[in-house]
Amino acid sequence: MARIPRRPAELVGQVFFARDAVRRGLLTKNDLRSSAWRQVLHNVYADSRIEITHLTRCRAAASWLFPPGCTLAGRSAVAMLGGPTPGPHEPVEVLVEPASRFGPLTGLLIHVSGWRDGDVQRVDGMPVTTGIRTCWDLACWLDTVEAVALIDALLHRHAVHADDLTVYLARRRNQRGARRFAEALSLVDAGAESLPESRLRVRLVRAGLPRPVTQHVVTRNGQFVARVDLAWPDLKVAVEYDGIWHHDPEQFHRDRQRLNHLLGDDWLVLHVTSKRMREDFDGVLTEIRSALRSRHSSH
C-alpha cells in the first residue's frame, strides 16, 4: 500500500524554508521527497497543490535566500512593479553588490553591480530596484527591442516617468551602459499597450520606417470610429498586431468589425501576426514600406 504523504497543518498551502521545517520537526528530509511537496528554489519548498508563479519565486528568494547586498532586479523587478510577469519557470533576476559572495543558485539569474542610494526600494517588504534603476538595468542587460518593450510597460503603468529617466541618464552620462540607455530612451513610448506591439514598433523604427503613433484614435465628425495599435495618421496607414484573438474569437470579430469602419475613411490597415513577426519580418517590413510609399505618392 502506498504511503500517504505527511502534510502538517502548519505547512498546508504554504511556501516555506525547508531547513526551518526540518529543524522544527514538522518534516524530515525524506518527507520533502514525497509528492506532497514541490521544490521552488534551493532549500525552499511549497505545498504541491498550490500554484507557483514567478512572483511566488521572487518572494521566496527575497524572504529566505538573500543575504545583505541583494535585490530583485531586471524582469523580476518589472513584475514586482506591476509590469508583465515572466513565466513560472523563468529565473528570478537578482542584482548583487560586488562585495557580496551570494550565488550561484539554481533558479536565480545573478547580475553583479553596485547601486546608489535611491536605486532600491521596498515592495511588500522585499528589496526591489526602483523603476528608474530597473529601466537602466534592462537597457544594459537585454537587447534593445526587449528592453524598450519592458520600459514601455513600466511607463504605461506609471511605475516610472520619462522625465525622471532623462534626468537619470544625465547623471550617468559618462558611465558604462549610458549609450545603451540613451538608445532605449530614444525609442520608448508610454502609449504602447502590449509587449508585442512595442517589439513591432521598435523593429520597424530601427529598420528605418518613420516613427508611428501608438494607440491612435480615429474619429469621424467628432465621433469615435476606431483605435489602432500603430498609425501614420497623415497617410492614413495603420498596423494592427493580431495576437489575443487566438484565445478569444469574440474579440477577434469585434476587432474586425471595428477596423472595417475605417474603410469608409480611406484607411489602409495591415495586420501582423506573431508567426509573421517570428518567421517573415522582412515580408512585413516590405508590405508596410510599400503602403507608406503608395500613400506618399498619392498625397
Strand content: 15-25%
Class by alpha and beta content: alpha+beta
Number of strands: 12
How far do the termini sit from each other?
Answer: 81 Å
Q: Major sheet: size, sense and barrel closure?
A: 4 strands, mixed
Quick check: average pLDDT?
Answer: 90
Could you spell the SSE succession in H and E letters?
EHEEHEHEEEEHHHHHEEEHEHH
The backbone outline, from C-alpha atoms, is elongated
Task: Round the Cα radius of gyration to an integer and report it.
Answer: 24 Å
Q: Helicity, in percent? A: 25-40%
List low-pLDDT spans: none
Number of DSSP helical runs: 11
Strand order of the largest sheet: 9-10-11-12
Number of domains: 3
Structural summary, described in words:
This protein has 299 residues and is an alpha+beta fold. The chain folds into three domains: 39 residues, no CATH class; 132 residues, no CATH class; 104 residues, VSR Endonuclease (Endonuclease, Chain A). Helix content is 38%, strand content 21%. The protein has eleven helices and twelve strands. Strand 10 and strand 11 form a beta hairpin. Helix 5 packs across helix 7 and helix 6 runs antiparallel to helix 7. The longest helix is centred in the last third of the chain and has 18 residues. The termini are far apart. The model has no long low-confidence stretch (mean pLDDT 90).
